[in-house]
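Hi P.,

Sorry for the delay on this. The queue was packed all week, but I finally got your sequence through. Input first:
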Amino acid sequence: MESKRLYEKIYLVVKRIPSGKVSSYGQIANIVGCTPRMVGFALASLKSNDVPWHRVINSKGMISLKGQEAGEIQRYLLESEGIVFDENGKVDFRKSGWNGGF
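Then the structure:
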């Protein structure tokens, strides 16, 4: 699949994650039919603000962004939507995970 079309599919799925919910790179990859790494590449190459990239975290329930500032921005955005992190910086998918429904 051409990467531009794949990225657009990824963005369409990520846009469906509601405020106050998170998804994992793997969950998005399963829905779209690619690898979690491709989801990360797509989100890293975003050029617009209409995709809620901050709602995608790793399968451990943690922020994967490299660099302290980027991770702090993502955590701030998630907390502002009511996402709770435990003392280890993890989100409980049972409480805050998106069910993938459309």
